[in-house]
Fold this protein.
Amino acid sequence: MIRVTVVYEAQLLRAALVELLRSGGVEVVASMSHWPQGPASVTSAPDVYVADAECLAPSAAAPAPASVSASIVEGGSALLALIPAQRPGVLRRAHAAGATGFVDKNGSKERLLEAVHRVARGERFIDETLALGFLQAAEMPLTRRELSVLSLAANGAPVAEIAGALHLSKGTVRNYMASVIRKVGARNRVDAIRIAQGAGWT
Amino acid sequence: MIRVTVVYEAQLLRAALVELLRSGGVEVVASMSHWPQGPASVTSAPDVYVADAECLAPSAAAPAPASVSASIVEGGSALLALIPAQRPGVLRRAHAAGATGFVDKNGSKERLLEAVHRVARGERFIDETLALGFLQAAEMPLTRRELSVLSLAANGAPVAEIAGALHLSKGTVRNYMASVIRKVGARNRVDAIRIAQGAGWT
């Protein structure tokens, strides 16, 4: 029987996912709200982590903790990420964290169970509804520096504070913002933040 | 046995909630991604709708459809809303939609099942972890007009467009924005939008 650990922040939905997996004949050995600190001990490592992609790396500014990759590699586990619709940035970060399975949160129970079995055998699994998202993720138009500027702006920081935090001049910060607005096709700064957050880039 | 209809947008989590409720001895008679159009026929009305609060009324600009209240009243059903953490605005809209049960998405399976039984008997159920949220919801600082301005700004509309949409002068729109920034304790317009969206006001 395949041994699974569930990682999902909201307890009620985590319990519901555990119930769903068990009803499909999977053994759930653990469930947790956040990624465990440090690598899992090899004896307790599950075959598959089923994790909310939004738990893996909440933002571009906070990439997936090294413990995610460490847990997967050291424990010989596979990582299956649950992906929300229309969030190519989240997909991108799940891929960077080492996921080999990508299941649409809007998919069926049967797809999830098929994916668990496939990644446990060492295969990849990508929901067809997410395929276009990979292309959009590959086409992410912003540079790392532009993303940093945008993330700070989205948190409400004024230009002077962004400049100070990134060791840039205020003029350079304004240039980066103008570049972001142009690249994402936004009408202004607020619109650029809305578009980038909607896609999960920040 | 209590008859329940589940309303939750993401199919995988909807299926998981159905499994959770069934494992707790509740009869799930239907599940759907969005609130049904028009009132449910009385013969098919469940005892309780268990609905994601974010499905009920996605934003202040799009209040709960009349069909929510109509379904509840005509079918004699109770509405139990699943509430995300730290979103007093979502709580407020669930209350406005007629919910009598409020369950924290971060609560346990046992709490959800207790809540289902309580609202089915015509009682109220409020998770204690949500109590502070009710206070914050009651203290929502923004007027309806300020919320309209903020919602349009959050969608990326420039001042002139907001003024046109709401039949106001540009100066008045700027005054409303300044008032919003002051009331929510924000540093600037972007910060005000971030705070209001975080609380679920917009």
Remarks:
- The mean pLDDT of chain A is 87.
- Residues 170-183 of chain A form the longest helix (14 residues).
- The domain at 3-137 of chain A is CATH 3.40.50.2300 (Rossmann fold).
- DSSP finds ten helices and six strands in chain A.
